Every structure is written in structure tokens, then in C-alpha cells.
Amino acid sequence: MNPVRNKSPKAIADMPLASRISNGVKPKKRLGQHFLRNKKILEEIARAAELSKRDIVLEVGPGHGELTEFLAASAGKVIAVEKDHELTLFLKEKFKNYKNVEIVEGDILKIGKLKIENYKVAANLPYYITSRFLRAFLEAKNKPKLMVLMVQYEVAKRICAKPPGMNLLALSVQAYARPKFIRKVSKKYFFPPPKVDSAIIKLLNIECSTCSTLPPKFWKVVRLAFQQKRKMLRHLSVPKKYETKRPQELSLEDWLKIIRSRKYLTCHPK
């Protein structure tokens, strides 16, 4: 029997974290739930979002609402989207007296178009949705102004990479935003602890992205290069100064110069 069914949402909402977990509001492995427990780190996420009372912030996966409280203290409105039905009931009770917090039940990847504009995102993302989440929000017509995300540490390093350590994920994100590494977060600060450490990253300048000016063949060429990342680029008909380079040694700006170069366009006219 699930203990949650024997207690009211209000009773559970009033409990400390350890008691909530023991009374049934438990992390679900299938949803990739790992609750961040450290208040200083939660506060740091909220601070990185640069919130004011004029801001709307979309929180993804609020869990027990610890980050939600920090966001609500600074933002004009918080829209928190939670997939877990039991947690949604708990959150609605916990924040029922908050005029600037709206709890929405649903899968952020399937919920459809949220009717919000000029917003920011703050999220402790389940690891398994990171790539799809980034693609959905960075490619959306109604993009956020900035995003502050908790992701796997290794993923954070890849996103924020620079030459000579570039990779396809870094280019895919940096074409839409300027990533900034905020800090590493030990797995010990989560319950239950994940197998790997995490990190907070910040994505800036999303509305002023490079993606709108990318040549049509950009991603086709870049993917082809990274499929053979140990090879030098001379097989792609690149300008001479790039012929002895490998794909991971080039920045986004370098790739744009290559694809717009006269030599490349002459060899690949269409």
C-alpha cells in the first residue's frame, strides 16, 4: 500500500524532505528523479537566472519544490512543470498560497506549446531528457531568454567545450546560445545520489543566435567531419589553412568560414 494515499497532500507538504520520502513521495527511477538537497546550490541556480519581478521563469521537474521556493522569491511568476502525478498533488498543496507560482502536470517534451513569452528556464533536468530538451527549446520559435540547467558533469563539459576539444554536441548548442560553465556539483548532494557528478550551466544570448544565418549544408558537413574525427579535413575541400586541422580543433566560427569559402562553394556548388 502506498503511504501517500493515507495522508493528505497538506500533511505531506508540511513534512521535511526525509519524512516526505518515507511517507511515499519517493524518487522514481523510471523518471530519472534525483532530488537536490543542498540549499546553497539551489540558491546559486536561482541567482544565476538573474531574476527580477518582471521575469517569468519556467521550471522543469520541480520535484519537492525546493528550487521553486527560491525562484518564487525573486521572479514575477514561476511556471513549474512536473510529470509525476503524486508530486504534482504535493506541489499544488505546498504552493497553494503563492500567488506567483503555477503548477502544471505534464511531460515537458509532450506538453505542447506553453503560452508564455519573454521567459527564462531553470531546471534540474532528468539526465535522460537532456538532449531532447535542449533541441526542443533551442529550436523553438518562442525561445527562452536564458536557461540555467543542471546536467551531467561530462555533458556540461562537452557543451562548453572549446577548440581543440570541440564536439558535435558543443557545436549544436553553441549555434543557438553561448554556454557558460557555472560549477560542478557532487553526486553526494542529491537523493538518491546518481552514479555521476552533475554541473550547472547557463545558456545565454539565445535570442541572438547564429543558427538563423547557417548555410543550408552546415550540419551535413559538420556531421560528416565528426564521423571521421581522426582524419584531417583536406578530404572535405576546405581552404588551405584548415587542411591539416581535425574537426575537434575548429570553432563554430571556423566552420562558418569553411562553408562560406570560395573553395568549398566551388567544389560543392549545391
The assigned CATH architecture of the largest domain is: 3-Layer(aba) Sandwich
Q: Helix and strand succession? A: HHEHEHEHEEHEHHEEEHHH
Largest sheet: 7 strands, mixed
| Order of strands across the main sheet | 4-3-2-5-6-9-7
State the domain count: 2
Q: Which bin fits the share of residues in helices? A: 25-40%
CATH 4th-level superfamily of the largest domain:
Vaccinia Virus protein VP39
What is the rounded Rg? 21 Å
Top-tier CATH class of the largest domain: Alpha Beta
Name the poorly predicted regions.
Answer: 1-5, 17-24
**Span of the ends, CA to CA:** 64 Å
Structural class determined from secondary elements: alpha/beta
Number of helices: 11
Can you describe what's shown?
The chain is 33% helix and 17% strand. The protein is of the alpha/beta class and 270 residues long. The protein is built from 11 helices and 9 strands. The protein has a 7-stranded mixed β-sheet with strand order 4-3-2-5-6-9-7. The chain has a two-stranded antiparallel ribbon with strand order 1-8. The chain has 2 domains: 3-208, Vaccinia Virus protein VP39 (Rossmann fold); 214-267, no CATH class.
Q: What order do the helices and strands come in, and which of them pair?
A:
Blueprint: H1 9-13, H2 17-22, E1 35-36, H3 39-48, E2 56-60, H4 66-74, E3 77-82, H5 85-94, E4 101-105, E5 119-124, H6 130-138, E6 147-152, H7 153-159, H8 168-174, E7 178-185, E8 190-191, E9 198-204, H9 218-227, H10 252-260, H11 262-267
Parallel strand pairs: 2-3, 2-5, 3-4, 5-6
Antiparallel strand pairs: 1-8, 6-9, 7-9
Helix pairs in contact: 3-4
